[in-house]
Amino acid sequence: MVEIDNEVLEADAKLRAKVLSKFGKFVVRKDLAFQVKGNLPVPTYVIEYLLAQYCQSDDDAVIAEGIEKVKEIVREHYFNRADHEIIKGRIHDMGSYMIIDKVSAYLDAAGDCYRCDFANLGLGGLVLPNKCVRENEKLLSGTGVWSIVRIRYVPGEEPGPRWEIETYKPIQIANVDVEEYRALRKEFTTDEWIDFMIHSSGLNPCVLNRREKLLVISRLLPYVENNYNFVELGPKGTGKSHVFQDFSPYGVLVSGGDVTSARLFVKISGRQEILGLVGYWDNVAWDEFEQQKGRATDAVLIDTMQNYLANKAFNRGGATHEASASMCFVGNTKHTVEYMMRKSHLFESIPTSFVKGAFLDRIHLYNPGWEISPLKKSSFSTGYGMITDFFAAILHAMRKDDLSGEMSNLVKFSGTLSERDHLAVRKTFSGMMKLLYPDGNYTTEEALEIVRFAAEGRKRVKEQLYRIDETFKAEPAVFEYTILSSGEKQSVKTLEEIENAATSEAAGGEASQAVAGGVGSAASSGGDAASLGAAGVVELHQAETPPALGPKHVYVQNNQRGVSYKSLFGEYLKGARKIKIIDPFIYKPYQFDNLADLLQLILDSNADSESDLRVELHTRVSETDPQGQNETLEALKNELATEGVEFEYTYDATHDRAILVDDKWAINLGRGLDIFDYFQRHSLKRSSQRMRKCRDFQMTIAPIQ
Questions:
Q1: Of 119, 195, 209, 610, which is the most buried if we count CB atoms within 10 A?
Q2: Cα(372)–Cα(349) distance, rounded to whole angstroms?
Q3: Tens of pLDDT along 640-672?
């Protein structure tokens, strides 16, 4: 089970209270839908709407009573299409009966009225009161509205309509007030709002770091941006299709292997051209978008798709059609990132027919699904989030807004980027700003975080194009930008590029540029292991003497791997006689593990030294188990004594965290020893720090004055 800090849990409890207070009838406890739905093929947003009517409380008794009420409603009034004749008979026998079904309306000009059709009941042409349509215009959208309807049977010997609508109530949200939504956003801090968005998508923000939260939220971009082209590939079970299935009445999830040109774009029947999925949905998501043996891809589909992804239009039959549907491709990877970076490319698992520059260059963002851990029970929200249908309606309403122009007031990108590069970054920036800052209030630092996120998502696409299509190397794009307010230049690197620097440089693209932003990115502690020969050939050489130590600054990102205490500061520990460790947070099991790792590194670094070595730990006393803390430190003290190391500990640390070596070097770690993200203790990561994901932190090594 994931360990969650008490501070995180307290913050989540405060957020829960604020959400109930501010959003009221528009929120629901997200785990309740699973309890009610079971195996019923009812969309989640239908269940959540009903729960919001009967479970608007944080009182367990009220919630339990509300759940039973919702279960009763679903059990009695929802039915499968196969049972439609049974339900018709029930209406006939009882005179009237209430049903839950999807209703679509249309204007009957000849009859000067609105009529409606029922998806599961199979009835059509029933007159729907004008007032119902005026208050629920979504009925006319062609996608239908889930509703609770009481239908009356009209007996008689004379021919005529036998079915009448007695009462009508939409289950889905009829109208949303975007301005009210924007005003409510002002009541939340950015961290609170991000967590609220994660809860609203059905996941638990307490088990995600900041970067993972942004990756999860980016899955909503196709719902809030018109014509957004999104790819996410990663291991199985990471929730890639979670927000595309039953999340929104404006989106549809299809199997990637079952999509045809006719189904997606236009079906030609005689002289009639019937518009496909892109004409009716905000978002079309392809699930299991991966290579399948024995299944060929329609060449017409790929050509039509390329034109649509680039131009928002497609030619089929005798006409040109336009649509605003976003396109998402989600699938599983076959190999690790390290393997793909070394031997192939990050698109290797998708159908071969799509692995070509002309298609992939149209992708706006490649979301790295491998950075999100497989979903477990603790991964799902038990807190309050927006009712899915309300949230989806808000995102749909904001599609018409365009915030991409605001980016030009913040940064200026290198002129080496193509227009498609610029467009991709602008669209991602616009969508993320609408999701996170719909009220328009944000700091420069917050906006720059989104700029970098957007640029990295596009750069991941471009770096793979260099591997797949040699023609893209002719005009390489340098992903860097200038911050207009300060004149500072920023270089953009993907996380896998930082972790696999040598492989990335050999693959092309920005091959000649040093990887910045990772370990050792600011101040080098010595010469490179490779230099460029006169003929342009890389010549490897071994340094004859160890490099001289000097000041060093390192920035490590969330989820970055390949980092260890040894790679960070191991050289500075060699030959030490006195090491002082200052870290107030050494009292939990994993924190003791971190300390043990550091002490082992100190022993290894001084194995050949004949000098006496003293290690001091300055921490603070545990509030929950001071006796256990003392016993563990005493055991370490006795163990180190057998190795000839004097170890002492005191409980006098406050907040500062550092490692002081011989009054020579101050190693300042922003997070202290706690730089690694959670991992299972019985894992290969236990024995190898370089396999672990990191939390974001900065480290500065400076001489002690």
A1: 195
A2: 18
A3: 999 999 999 999 998 889 999 998 999 999 899
